Amino acid sequence: MAVQVTIYNVTGQTPFDVYICQSGGTGCFYMTTISTLPYTFDIPVPYNNATSYMLKLIDDNGCVITSVQEVTPCYDLDCTISGGTINILDCTLSGGTVIIYP
Question: Which of 19, 22, 59, 93 is the right S-S partner for 27, CB 3.0 to 4.6 Å?
Fold first, then answer.
């Protein structure tokens, strides 16, 4: 499953070097350098299987900006469920149909 990250806003001096790290701040790897926002990217395989990540940005002045975020699974919906409830949190879904039978 792809883990998609979108950076909407950040305070600092452009450009920003973008890193993805384990949630504890270890195991960081460089993704890219950005100058405009919003910026969206996918965390590559095999690093896309954690439940949380640290996003680390380093601005042009050398300031380090970090944020740890939980991964919220989000799937295109096309399913039939026999009873139950579906809760969708912080997701954007495109297409699909959900049918819930009591």
Answer: 22
